[in-house]
Structure formats: C-alpha cells, structure tokens
Amino acid sequence: VLKQKANSSNKSLSTCQTYTKKKHPLKVGNSQEVPAINGNRNVVKAKPTNTMDNGSAKDNPPLAKPKSKRVATDKNLNGAKSNGKGCKEKKKNGNILMEKGDIKHKRRKAEEQAEQQPKEAEIWFDDVDPKDIEAAIGPEAAKIARRNLGLETGQSEQSVEQVLVKEKASEGLTGAVAMDCEMVGVGPKGEDSIVARVSIVNQFGKCIYDKYVKPTEEVTDHRTAVSGIRPENINTGEDFKTVQKEVADILNGRILVGHALRNDLKVLFLDHPKKKIRDTQKYKPFRQRVKNARPSLKLLCERLLNVQVQTSEHCSIQDAQAAMRLYTLEKKKWEAAVKNKSNNKNCK
C-alpha cells in the first residue's frame, strides 16, 4: 500500500512539472521570470536578443549606430546644410545661397573693414597726385582724392582716343580748333626752342592739320624723349614759311584752344586775338579744381578726364585733342564767363 501511494505521488509530481512547462513557455526577446520548480525559489531571467518573435538573429542585422549630434544636425527638413560656421546654405539650381546668418556675418565684417579704412573727412589734399596718395596711404584714400578733385571714374576702361575723340563726327573745320606744337633745341646748349611739328584738331578731336617743320637753325638737341622728334622727321619736313601761313589761315576768325598757347604762338611767330584764346592752363576753374596755379596738361587730363597722356614721348595731335576735350567739358560755362567779362568791360 505504501509503495502504491509513493508511485502515485511521483506521477502527480511529474504531471505537475509537465503542466508547468506548457503553461509558462519562454518568450524570445523578453526578459521574464520562470516559476519555481520543485519548490526552488530561485528566479531565472531570460537574456534579451535583437530577434523578433518570427525571426532569428541571423535574419535581422544589428541596428545601425546613431549618428553624432553634429552630423545629425547638419541637415534639416528644408534640405539646408550647415557650413560649420553657424551659417546655413541652401542649394537652389546648383547655386549655394547663404542664409541670413551668413549675410549678417559678412555685413559685420564689411563694417569692421570700413572702420579701418581712412575716412574722407580725415584726408586732406594739397596738389598731391592720387598715385602718390595710393602708394602712401592706400587705394581707398586715392579713390577719395580723385572724387574730391572732380576726377571722373566711369571712363577708366576706355582708351585715350575714345575719350578724346568723338568717333562719328565731322572731320572738317569747326568754329573752335585746338593746336599744339612740338619743339627742338637750338643754340650752344639747346636751351632755345624752334618749332618742329604743328598739329591742329577740330572741335570733335579730329586731326585736320599735322606737319613736321624743317628747322631754320642748326638743331643741337632734338629732345626726343619728350618731343618724339627725330632727325629724319624734320630733315624732310615742310618749309617754315609755308607752315606758318597755312596755320594762320586755319586760325583766322576761329576760337583757338590749347595748353600754354603763348609758347606755341611764339615759335610760330603768330599772334591771335586774346578774346579768341581758350588756354586750359589759365582757366581759373581748372586751377581751382586741381589746386595748382599752373597745372600741366597731363595733370588736368588725369584728374578731370581720367585718362593718361604724355606717358612717354609727347604727341602733338594727342595733346591738342586733350586740350580740346577739356574745353568742350566746360564750353558752356567758359563761353558764358568770357561773354560776361566782355560785357563788363563794355559797360565801363
């Protein structure tokens, strides 16, 4: 009887174990406690895995590691990309557009640079070449100098001829003509001057007369570096008397424009009515603008026309064109001033 009871108890225990295993199966991927078996109170915890209920770890690769915070913030929902300087850039049609942050940064930088540049009120000029100012202070100071001196800057890319000559214009005589002469030296040291070339242009800068003059005396200094005259030019030149008469005929009754015309008329042994002379060296408004009592033609052209003349050997045609262009620049005011001056004299 005792053996039967023991066998019966063992069967019940076996049935209980089987029932317990079926009722509490382990779920993959979850950490659960397994009920105690045979009265044991120890708890066994299942290890978690990355597999799903319906798949194994081999079928599902491990999850990618999250990107660093900097990389993750490099892109936003609008497709903007950080450039690492606190500014954002947007791509549009292949071009990168800077956003407000970058614009503010650039504006602030420009303001800082502007503060370092010389202010217009801090710079004064007294007959100083803008080139010298640029070498001593900088390009910004030279720019201010040119502006204060009335120097036009819009023609910097144009050639000298484009500035001095009106392309589609008459090539004949006009009411005003400009003349310039090149001279050579005579005498023991070549200090005295005689005419070697005469050039005349009309009001539009078109050359209407240009001749070399055969010397009337022995030339001791051709002054080639300045005059551009060489022996072969004047040895085959026109006779002085012929040139003198031709020039006198052209100037007769016309306004004569030039620079330091007294010297040109002197070597030609000619005279011209004072009221018909327009000398760019003596014109008071020009002298005031360049702050020079006797400005050179080169200085006037650089500051008032923004062109370079007489950079090497002089050319009488170009010098005449330059004088004419300066005259036409102020023609209305100049002629009005001459008229007023004449009227005042008549009243007296």
Automatic annotation (TrEMBL):
Q: Which domain of life is it from?
A: Eukaryota
A biological-process GO annotation: DNA catabolic process
What GO CC terms are in its UniProt record? nucleolus
Key word Nucleus present: yes
A Gene Ontology molecular function term of the record: 3'-5' exonuclease activity
Q: Which UniProt keywords apply?
A: Exonuclease, Hydrolase, Nuclease, Nucleus
Looking at the record, the residues that make up the Exonuclease domain are 175-336
List all Polar residues biased stretches: 1-19
The keyword Nucleus appears for this protein: yes
InterPro entries reported for this sequence: REX4_DEDDh_dom, REXO1/3/4-like, Ribonucl_H, RNaseH-like_sf, RNaseH_sf
Question: What is the predominant subcellular site recorded for this chain?
Answer: nucleus
Q: Where is this region: Disordered?
A: 1-119
Q: List the Pfam families.
A: RNase_T (PF00929)
Q: Where does the record place Basic and acidic residues bias?
A: 109-119
Location relative to the cell: Nucleus
User: What's this protein's family per the entry?
Assistant: Belongs to the REXO4 family.
Q: What is this protein called?
A: RNA exonuclease 4
Name its species.
Fregata magnificens (Magnificent frigatebird)
